[in-house]
Amino acid sequence: MTPSTDTDTGLPLDMIIFGGMGDLAMRKLLPALYMAFLHGNLPSHTRIISTGRQEFDREAYLRFVEDNSRSFIAGANFNEKTWDGFLQLLEFVRLDVQAAPDFSALAKASEPGAQRVFYLSTSPSLFTTICEKLAGAGLVDANARVVLEKPLGHDLASAIEINEAVGKHFAESQIYRIDHYLGKETVQNLMVLRFGNSILEPLWRAPNISSVQITVAEEVGVGSRAGFYDSTGAMRDMVQNHLLQLLCIVAMEPPTSLSPDAVRDEKLKVLRSLRRLKLADIARDTVRGQYVHGVSGNQEVNGYLEEKNVPPDSKTETFVALRAHIDTWRWSKVPFYLRTGKRMARRSSKIVVEFANPPFPLFPDMPGGVANRLVIELQPEEAIKLQIMAKQPGSGMQMQQVALNLDLQSAFQQRRAEAYERLLIDVVRGRLTHFMRRDELEAAWAWADPIIEGWGLLDEKPHPYAAGSWGPAESFALLARDGFAWVE
User: Which of 282, 285, 390, 480 makes an SS bond possible with 454, Cβ 3.0 to 4.6 Å?
Assistant: First the structure.
């Protein structure tokens, strides 16, 4: 099959959501599509077809959307007339993914000749079946696109199996492997920061940079996802995708252009340059944690083993910290520290680039620690801060660290789309740059798999950390050995 090369086909759009009654669809996808509709970013003839096993007619489905999705639209963005217009786009088709006749019903519901976007917001174990039956029902053509939600596989072998199965029916240019972190404004701005500013490029390398930290901290626990999470853990859920994608953007070489493959080629080189960790490295350079009873958001909360649907002897990690190295000239001997966890002190995602201290301490009263840092905050605020040294007012040469701040909210007055809205628009317009390519995904698994396997061989319990803290003490020791500390 030769896919269309047009980014805008000019065809009617059928956005077909599998798992259309699920949590992701209600909290993220439908609100994102509403915002795209509100701002005129959907084709004029668009339909959104949700599928599910419920015995719903269209009216029952619309009531469900009113009850479960409307509240996730910010009040400032809600308009009753626009909402009513958006509801006119919605359809519901009862569908059991195991039943071929149900796909025939979906084909009848889809407009002939429409550009179809299939959003698979289901368990990855169903991707193969769904794609086979879509093709069997004649729903896959050169204009069709499929969006695959993470996690894409449980390990490298299962990821290859999924990619092979989907690839039988969709060309690689029709497959959108979504990672919502790549839709964040600040993450995309990192490309401009790096490659649109000549002042940074000469410094963006060893020995000018001494270390890089990437933190994705969540204040929430596993909640209703405990059953899924216990078979997944923080490494598969966060490190293998979100954190490695952030690492790639920080560490990649300048692409030859902004074309999707040029950008993704450079990210792939980073993943292939990541030093593979042997068992001794895993024991020394990785930390697994699991939250225990503590205080979060001024409330006492249960530990992980007390959560519903979690086995009392579970060794699943809810926290990971590790040291990684990229074996290239640019990053020789520069450690990359990755950290993620649930039930941490607060919600915070940030990238911290620590520059090397001046080679000679000209100012004897210079405070200890790192003189210059670039702090890229992704959430809850989106901002970029350059921390430099400045003289304190008064006599003498007392110094103090100050920040040059770029507050993206105040610097740009126009509305800032949420990640899912931006990525869904990219899918509709055929933009692949901010989606993972097959070889990227498999390279990420090839690096992560030996770490997970090594933990199984070591067979150690995760280190406990109190809910509402910044993780186990061992994660602080990981950096302290190298003379660094986490930037909170």
Answer: 282
112, 129, 138, 172 from 11: Cα distances, Å: 10, 27, 17, 21
- How far is Cα 289 from Cα 292, in angstroms, rounded to an integer? 10
Q: Are strands 319-324 and 286-292 parallel, antiparallel or unpaired?
A: antiparallel
Residue 374, classed as helix, strand or coil, is strand
pLDDT number for residue 396: 74
Going by C-alpha positions, the residue among 34, 40, 49 that lies closest to residue 114 is 49
Parts of the chain with a pLDDT under 50: 1-7
Strand partners, 407: 383
Tokens representing 264 are 């993704």
Rounded Cα gap, residues 270 and 331, in angstroms: 10
DSSP letter string over 274-340? Answer: BPPP-HHHHHHHEEEEEEESEEETTEEE--GGGSTT--TT----SEEEEEE-B-SSTTTT--EEEEE
Of the candidates 205, 206, 213, the residue with the CA atom closest to the CA atom of residue 253: 205
Number of CB atoms found within 10 A of residue 94's CB: 16
Whether residue 325 lies in the annotated active site: no
Q: Which DSSP symbol is given to 357?
A: P
Angle of helix 244-251 relative to helix 438-458, nearest 10 degrees?
120
176 to each of 54, 158, 258, 265, 483, how far by Cα in Å?
27, 18, 17, 16, 41
Q: pLDDT tens for residues 66-125?
A: 999 999 998 888 999 999 999 999 999 999 999 989 999 999 999 988 999 999 999 888
Taking the whole predicted model, whether its pTM rises above 0.85 is answered as yes
- Residue-level pLDDT at 6: 40
Determine the pLDDT at residue 399: 77
Indicate which residue of 45, 154, 169, 242 is catalytic: 242
Q: Write down the pLDDT at residue 423.
A: 95
